[in-house]
Specification:
Strand order of the largest sheet of chain B: 1-2
Number of helices of chain B: 3
Distance between the termini of chain A: 26 Å
Distance between the termini of chain B: 43 Å
Number of helices of chain A: 15
Number of domains of chain A: 1
Oligomer: heterodimer
Order of helices and strands of chain A: HHEHEHEHEHEEHEHEHHHHEHHEEH
Order of helices and strands of chain B: HHHEE
Strand content of chain B: under 5%
CATH class of chain A: Alpha Beta
Radius of gyration of chain A: 21 Å
CATH topology of chain A: Amidase signature (AS) enzymes
Strand order of the largest sheet of chain A: 1-3-2-4-6-5-10-11-9-7-8
CATH architecture of chain A: Alpha-Beta Complex
Radius of gyration of chain B: 22 Å
CATH superfamily of chain A: Amidase signature (AS) domain
Largest sheet of chain A: 11 strands, mixed
Chain lengths: 500, 97
């Protein structure tokens, strides 16, 4: 039999259901892979092996007595460390929350556990999800399983690296400006950011509340659909949750894109796009075209304005959301201080990292009187224009297809010195959050160094099913050749190494 | 545009953000903010006359529910996270002189 941790989540779930394997064996396999890989990759911030084995035993009993029949029952999962888990540390990869143990579990995780998935640990991320490389984590970097000299992307870098390395069968991430899709692309895994309001944000520690969504990180499209089936749903504990008509995402896995209309935004293929990424995406377009999709280039517009609008809006919301970290109710408190305000200031100054402080300050500035209209309101108007541009596109197309990121994973410590450059890496993902739309990263090739390349599928509002269908058809047409765990022994490879 | 972020502004941002910056950090933050703001200023190339600001992509309504405890008494677990606690309360520095 193939290694348990190289199976997809749904394949593993089937074997567990068929009693070829037990949930406990699955968790043991994940823990063994973690033991083997974690020292070099560092995907996890905390691992609860003992608890996971106990939960797997309970799940196994319920599978055997027939009360648990869901496809993910018994399958080991990782959870990004900004999603609350009762009794299990949840740090946001920040010093300020280093010892925080939530008294409640996020709705999305509760739903996962209800469907029998077994949480084995919490995954690394950029501090408070602010970053694109997982290098702003207070607890150290995560390395890309495909090449340890490179970043996994971010901010859900730990979740994506863990799935790519087979340390868990799937994971949850969160996406505010591309934080599921970009690291999925860099790590060669499949990740989807659902339409805003689809997955409850209850228990997700807020960064940019109007943009944040939790979503699946998985090996393939089928897994993504199964995970979405489990976690999506209306939740009255999240005031922005939307009650949708249908949640059967697995039902959308149909190998047929005949007559589907796919728009290719010319503005995503300009001079900023790396040639190897461009070639891979154009090959993917060809694959769908040959399967009968109708493909057309068009001008989306406003692409260059998405990043500045995003940084105003996300930073503004972050400055407000992160004001709760004051050294009183939870988290770190500075040792010596002068009075209440001194305590607040010193605690926050010592507790937050540089990138978080940068965004809190920018957010405070754009919301301050005298600048509010010029920056914050202006950005909200640009957001409205961006939404209109997408609305116009989706009058003509079922899907938009483009790259996830301009390049493959950069080398470690090559990004943080120039944050503006790092921000530009999110140019193709960020507008999707501003417009609240669903977007998916699907593995579609490798560069000459063997690093994965992802294509992005963007759907209209609530149109995850169109995305899943096209992604599934692409997987079928390419015989899943880009769906695989990272090869072992990816030591510190030389830059010039020839990949495949 | 170059001097948008004056010493006074960065001081004020520090107060709003509840962050403490020493001399060199202030200079670095100023330079950093200048760069970000210069980049953000490109939004002014767009004519947004008559466009309604869009705080949310969907219409959002206040979601009310009755104020009932549904998850039991979590005071012990909640207080366990406090940096300093005493007799079932959060301890804060003296706030009234």
């Amino acid at each position: 039999m193939m290694d348990i941790m190289d199976m997809t989540a749904v394949e593993l779930g089937k074997k567990i259901k068929a009693r070829e394997l037990s949930a406990v064996e699955a968790v043991e396999a994940a823990l063994a892979r973690i033991e083997e890989k974690e020292r070099e990759i560092h995907s996890f911030l905390s691992i609860d092996g003992e608890g996971a084995l106990k939960r797997a035993g309970e799940v196994q009993k319920r599978i055997e007595d027939g009360t648990l029949t869901e496809p993910l029952a018994g399958v080991p999962a990782g959870i990004k460390d900004n999603i609350c888990t009762r009794g299990m540390k949840t740090t946001c990869a920040s010093k300020i929350l280093e010892h925080y143990i939530p008294s409640y579990t996020a709705e999305a995780v509760q739903k996962l556990e209800k469907s029998g998935a077994v949480v084995i640990g919490k995954t690394n991320m950029d501090e408070f999800a602010m970053g694109s490389t997982t290098e702003t984590s207070y607890f150290g970097v995560t390395r890309n399983p495909w090449n340890l000299d490179h970043v996994p992307g971010g901010s859900s870098g730990g979740s994506c690296a863990a799935v790519a390395a087979g340390e868990c069968s799937f994971a949850l991430g969160s996406d505010t400006g591309g934080s599921i899709r970009q690291p999925s692309s860099y790590c060669g895994v499949t990740g989807i950011k659902p339409t805003y309001g689809t997955v409850s944000r209850y228990g997700l520690i807020a960064y940019g509340s109007s943009l944040d969504q939790i979503g699946p990180v998985a090996k393939d499209v089928t897994d993504c659909a199964a995970i979405l089936d489990a976690i999506a749903g209306y939740d009255r504990k999240d005031s922005t949750s939307v009650a949708r008509g249908s949640y059967d995402f697995t039902g959308a896995l149909i190998d047929d894109v005949k007559d589907m209309k796919i728009g290719i935004p010319r503005d995503y293929f300009g001079s900023g796009l790396g040639p190897e990424v461009k070639d891979a995406i154009m090959r993917a377009v060809k694959v769908l075209e040959e399967k009968g999709a109708y493909v057309e280039e068009f001008d989306l517009g406003l692409v260059d304005y998405a990043i500045p609008a995003y940084y105003v809006i996300a930073s503004a919301e972050a400055s407000s959301n992160l004001s709760r970290f004051d050294g009183v109710k939870y988290g770190y408190r500075a040792e010596d201080y002068d009075g209440l305000h001194g305590m607040y200031k010193k605690t926050r100054t010592e507790g937050f990292g540089a990138e978080v402080k940068r965004r809190i300050m920018l957010g405070s500035f754009v919301l301050s009187s005298g600048y509010y209209d010029a920056y914050y309101l202006k950005a909200l108007k640009v957001k409205a224009l961006i939404k209109q541009a997408f609305d116009r596109a989706f009058e003509r197309y079922d899907l938009i297809l483009g790259p996830v990121a301009p390049a493959t994973a950069p080398k470690l410590s090559s990004s943080l010195d120039n944050p503006m450059n790092m921000y530009l890496g999110d140019i193709y993902t960020i507008s999707v959050n501003l417009a609240g739309l669903p977007g998916m990263s699907v593995p579609a090739g490798y560069d000459s160094r063997g690093l994965p390349i992802g294509m992005q599928l963007i759907g209209g509002c609530y149109k995850e099913k169109d995305i899943l269908r096209a992604a599934y058809a692409f997987e079928c047409a390419t015989d899943k050749m880009y769906v695989k765990t990272a090869p072992p022994d990816r030591g510190t490879a030389d830059e010039g190494e020839e990949g495949r | 545009m170059a001097d948008r972020i004056s010493d006074e502004t960065i001081e004020y941002i520090g107060i709003l953000s509840k962050l403490e910056l020493d001399g060199s950090e202030k200079e670095a933050a100023k330079a950093d903010m200048e760069k970000m703001i210069a980049y953000i200023d490109r939004l002014n190339e767009l004519d947004t006359e008559g466009i309604e600001p869009m705080p949310h992509v969907f219409p959002i309504y206040n979601a009310f529910r009755s104020d009932e405890v549904e998850n039991g008494d979590e005071s012990v677990r909640t207080l366990a996270n406090a940096p300093v606690q005493k007799e079932g309360s959060f301890v804060v520095p003296k706030t009234i002189g």
